[in-house]
Amino acid sequence: MFRRIYICLATCRKGWLAACRPIIGLDSCHTKGYHKCQLMWAIGIDSDNGYYPIAYGVVEKEYYKTWRWFLDLLKIDLKLENPLRITFMTDRQKGLVEAIAVLWERCEHRNCMRHLYANFKKRFRGDKIRYKIWQAARCSNVDDFNNVMEDIKRISESAWLWLFDKPTLTWTKSHFSEYSKYDMLLNNLCELINGDKTILEARSAPIWTMLELIRVKIMNRKAKRRAGIEKWYDNVGPKVSKIMELAAKNSRELVCHWGGEGNWQVSQYQIPIAVVDLERHTCTCRPIYNKGEDHTTYVNKYYDKESMRMCYSNVLYGIKMERHWQRVDMPPLMPPKSVRQTSRPRKLRIREIGEIPPNARKIVKFSK
Prior knowledge:
alpha+beta
């Protein structure tokens, strides 16, 4: 009888080990077919900040044992022995936090800021406090973060205490490790693949059909991304180029003063705001931009074209029809038992506080 399945395609595993950043997003979602199960994902990031499927699986239920089973196999496939060399991004699913803590005791474990803020605004409302919490999350250095936290404390001490109780390593850029070369605050990559049209249709199909649709989706995506590399105009991808162009546009008022041996002081209106070391690729505000030179030469290797080629160089080939498969002397696989899922999925998504439904009618007030 079918119970669980874990799939880590060799091409995906080799590509992640060769050129992807050491960060993995973990998420799960309900299947919508006759047999209610959970579809689990492990997602990486390619050189152009696109999602990169590493592994996926189907389990009977989402809890500690299934996450531990999934991560045990992932740890073996990706050779994740050193906890200081891997970062996880999650939405704090049931049992997932405990499973990661057991397998990688000292690893960096980030939480999606959107889910943290959804819990925060249940207790604390107002545009001012909302602006400050997101400002604190986006701070790139500890000094700015401490200043914003003091502002939050002046606005609402209870909100400050609520945030103070949350480990800063999990939700603010100022305390993120630089090793992963990734500073996004949201677990958008897993949300993207769960919301993909093909994946949504696959989740409504039987388990066998769903797995095949997912494999074909990955095969098509790898082929398209591999072909798109040759259309890059720069040494970095289109998404990264837009980020760098925006940074260059915002730096028009900055002036760089050379101190020697790759050391530069960056000033704005004659006020020093950052110190950049181009040889060590370090900055007091972390991002690096050097006016007057080709800034793509200072981009980390994870973002360049060669890393993108290495990431998608392994081809995922098609498979033959089932009648051409090798026969095995085993009893037929029976469908799984129907297991009641925790928090059964609804037909309509539960919307966040203050979120307006897409089909909501606008109330028009008429004066007398």
